[in-house]
Amino acid sequence: MQESKIIKLSLLTAFFLVNLEAKELSEDVNLQKVVVSASGFEQEADSNLRNVISIEGKDLQNKGYTSLEQALERVAGINFVNFGLGRNIDLRGQGNKSNIAVKVMIDGRSINVLDNSHGVTPLQSVNLDNIERIEIVPGGGSVLYGNGTRGGAINIITKKQKEDALAFSVSGGGFDGGHLGGNFGLSGAKKIDENLAFSFDLQGFNKDGFQEGYNQKGYNINTKSYIDLSEDSDLTFTYNYFRTLNTSSGYLTKKQAQNNPSQKGNSENITQINRPKLALNYHHYFNDFYEFSLETFWQNQKIHYLKDVSTMTSRGMSVPVYQNGSAFEDILMGVNFKNKLNYANNSYFIFGYEFANHDAKRRSIIHYDVNVPMPPPNGFSMSHTMTTLMDMDKQSHSFFMLDSHEFNDFFTLSGGTRYEYSLYDTSRNYNSNMIMNSRPPTNTKEFFNTDDTSHNLAFEITPNFTYSNTGKIYAKYERGFISPSPSQLVNKDQASQKYQSANLDPEVFDTFELGIDDFWWDFYGFNLSVFYTLSKDEISYLGNPHSTQGAFWKYYNIDETRRFGVELNLSQFFLNDALILKESLSYLDAKISKGINDGLKIPYVSKIKATAGVEYAFTNNFSSFVDLTYFSRAKDGGSIDEKTGKMSKNAWIKDYFLTDVGVNYHYKKLQVLAGIRNLFDKKYYTYQDSINDQYLVGNGRNYYVEFKYAF
Question: Which of the ends of the chain has fewer CB neighbours closer than 10 A, N or C?
Fold first, then answer.
């Protein structure tokens, strides 16, 4: 342990010494133009009025990451939150609201699921090799992206390959204790003629997890067809299909996690996920003044529980609980029509209409048997099966507009508004069958249907001051909203076990933000944001929707929460980009500011995240990197009083520090990647429930090697 600390200290010392020495060796570096689409249309980054973080896909692919989660965990300002069902991306302290308060998109199409209580954004369906770039808009985006952007928006832009190409890749990896896995990829493109092209990307994978009993196997298919209808019009058809079979072994106790974090958990789960997607996009460029795009899309995700066995305690006995046959389905279809008017130099007006029909279906089956072998008549046996069928639909119509006007070389003003009207239709069908010895069988049925509507308005205004050729200062005010999901509109009373209407108001938030972005002395990048978000009528719940002994819950609006934060990003480029240094620091204070939990921290939110990285190219063909990532501690969910909603016993989730190292070698058309992640084998938890003594452990030290060849 002492040796590990010495190595870590030496590495940090070397990093900062290199930083100081490299500043003395600085040479001129050209600032590259970065293309982003935060306005809904692609444009150069310096024409945007807010700090948009753009990450090139090649920068992720050159570090040997095997999943989007693994890559984004190392990115400045991004955290991951697991409150029991899987890890979701978090921006600016959303905590257990991260799955509905951070919008994740692929090519501008949301992939967030509608069933929030079982919602894990399907990041695993994204193939890293198919990413052109990732755009991160911290805090806001309500005018252009609508509901659920309090934490921000992440847009994953996929590759557009129209020229002839063919490449393949093979990778492998493992942990100190084994648990091997690998990926195989094949990608290519064919230009049929001047007006027609086709591209594809295939990936197959079979990977064991750090913990015994974890495995993921499946494949990913991405295809695009490009048709140039004229010099000014083009049509793109996209088809994607993702299929995976996941095996897991469940939670560990704290004692188990500390003694042997890679051991098998106390349950067994096998799920199959199928996710097809279709999209058709038409873009027409009339002239320098007017262009528009029209897109229609459909996506479907089905999750089947082929096997699900956990344990509950009843009458002092450990009883297996089966949820085999349960399933979840998420279907989203819609139309997006956007227009852009370039009415003056560096000034534009965007307006459009969006239609989305989002449907979620749930089939929940819970079965358990209790047998107490005692002499008659004292023996006891019970067989209980609970089946819940749900169909939740949310249909939204949105109108939006955004204007950005450059008054002069110094001052630009941006502002916009969005109106969203949503219609809800939710039905629940509950059936409980119980058979007990010496008693007649009981059968309880309940059906509940509710309709509702929601009207929401968002607007923002952002003055921007350009004080130099490279520097800008902006101030932003934004009013946004998070409308209820259909499942939140229904409560279930604990005593009567009857459904009731929740009568919820939408969450409304106000964000105030100041930011500065500059590139000094041709080598030093500087980006700083300070923000304050006040959120009213946040939706929370009492009870336990996942209880195997009779679910009960109550959704309600709490009074107020507030989030204050500072985000700092630095970068330095030396020796004609042979040496690149990057540092970031995010500070976040997220608290409940009114109500019975006034002053308490929002669970699952780390106060500090810090990153530092060094990339050095020894030659044009050989380079290396070191990435350091730190997450401070956070509070877990603790316990919530079923009657008052008072939180208590929120234990600390310990902080952790990750170190990654790697090398990248090119020889003609061959590329070889190798490295070690979590170099110092730091132990940390990706999920913690201290009340029920349930823990999931993060990946220990692991190794990777990858070969890529382009024909």
Answer: N
